[in-house]
Design brief:
By secondary structure, this protein is mainly β. It contains seven helices and 39 strands.
Amino acid sequence: MMKNNFLLSLLFLGSTCTLVAQETPAKAVELNEVAILKIKKAVEQKADRTVFDFASQPSLNTGSVLEGIKKLPGLIASDVAGMMYQGKQLDVYLDGRPLNITTNELNSFLEGMPANAIEKIEIITQPGAEFPATSGGAIMNIITNANAKKYLSATYTNSTNVTNYDNVRWRVNNSLLLSAKNKYFGWQLNLGQSYNESMLITSLTKNVNTVASPLSTTNADRVGRTNFIKSAVTFDIGKDRLLLNYDLNYSNNNSTTLGKGPGFSTNDNSFTDALRQDFVATYQKKFEDRAKKLEFKVNYNDNLNDFLLNSALNNVAVLDNESQQQVFNAKFDYSQPISLSDEGKLSFGGLFESLLFETQSKNIINLDYQRKTAAAYAEFQTKFDKFNFIVGGRAEDYNISGKTNTASLIPFKQFRFFPNASAQYNFDDAIYFNVNYNKKISLPSTSALNPNNTNYQNPNIDYSGNPNLQPTIFDNYEVKLSAFDYAFIGYNVSSAQNQVINRVLLTNDVVVNTSVNVPQIKVHNFNVGMPIPYMLFTEGLKETIKMNVNPDTMNFLYVYAAYQYHEIPEIKTNGFWMFNLMSQIVLPKDIKFVANFNYMFPKGNYFYFIVEKPMRNNVDLTFSKKFFKDQISVSLSANDIFNSNRTVVSSYNTPLVLSNKNDSRRFGFSINYKIPTRNKLAKEDPSLLNKEKKEEGEGNLNQ
């Protein structure tokens, strides 16, 4: 009986979440003293993606984007082993466009971006045919979104954090969003800066016959500075619309690293300059039938990186490496309803993309890489009674070539077809069972191809890319039962051929960190998540059902658990468990208290690494309150209060143990101020900064 009551209470909570969800009133429009309230959901489960709202969650948006991402349940973001969500390698997008960077370069970019500039993050676990086949296992789309209003509006956000280990270090983020619209055009401007002081201690140890021999220990004192501008202007041309976007991101980072090992002692200064520019022109054709859509988009991206490593002991340049990446793409997308069935829709489109990548070491070109891709897709959606179906396919033609300063790269010239299919049974409007399959490809990122070291080096450590990496082919399968956006249980397996992974190897007591292809890997992932209201235990099921529950004013616990197993032929591997607990308690004076606990059990295999100590082991606390009719939001945060978050892994088939620890225990505050307006009847228009082809909910099985 208790078991039945517990299940009923979960269904009850879920039904309330369908109406008011786990969070926050987003916007109210007053008409003749009648307020229409729109609700933003903190976490939303859809058939092909999970959506995390950052803008309204102080526990996520008080630091950098990277820090917020590491708190998401089911996501592993490791400096050593890369980024993965529910067993799938992530391809990272910004506002619907791929960043085309990975590993250290990606981490630096995300660490320099303030989380308070992010509206939401979508993790698309089942990318359809409209997404490039190169999306690999899954896509993380970071959206810096805001609505344009027919009056000038402004929002200012600041977050400040401090750590105190060997020294006091500060992290300060500021951002300002301006937007306006008139009958001729609309514009938006989002600008900000980030200043981050941080510490990173790493050690590399060789264990032979229970004897530990230190190979290298480093202590890095790092300073990161990032400035960004995101701008947009839109023009209405008759019924059509022209949208122009320009983004600029400049980072200037430096680090002082003290290193020591057998027979050496170093003191090095590193400097990294990175300039990223992105221009997009979008033309949207409007039809009498609003369900019919046609969009043309042209995008140019330029990414410059300059890395210097100088020895402070003898004033000698150890490393002087540069790279430039240029990407041009043009695409079109068309969709229209079809009368063949209920809610039927046909979509098709095409894309051409060209990527140029060049690296230099001390002014000598040592990699010249070119990649051209032509693609076309078609996808059909339909509904019959309680069943939804999606069937699609994408054809892509690749022409990849290049050369180093000593030899030509292995060319990759292939035409491939990538099918996708989904079927969903809807028990009712809020409970559904979904089955998905898709085939994808992942092309090696230019960060992994770069033969130069853009990280750090001493006599016992070397970092380098691998220009001979080959693409990875994925077959992705998933089944999932979801209820009321929050409760779900699922299983997925990603089977990869030629998987690109990070390997740490030992050669003559020199540790080499590089990327290699592995012929075959399967990653199995089982995961479950559900909300549990505390009133169930204090008031009982009968009283809980009587309550008019709003989760924003409710005390509850959200539980997430996952088991992941990396299957590698000819290697005995162990799986591992991950847990995430998020508790919300509403205190007097409407103060919201949120506690997050993450834990990843040791002794499991993460590709070719064995986790020796618990990872993602941290407890974060946040207190937040809104003032002056929600115009001002203030939060206080304490992250990793027990100072337990660290990474300790060993490398398979080597005697190496790698350990790193940063200044993760930090305390801070953030403030968000929305400048009030007298025009309460002003209409909100869609975002200009990241207008996406695919509107929320469109194209999903869970309509």
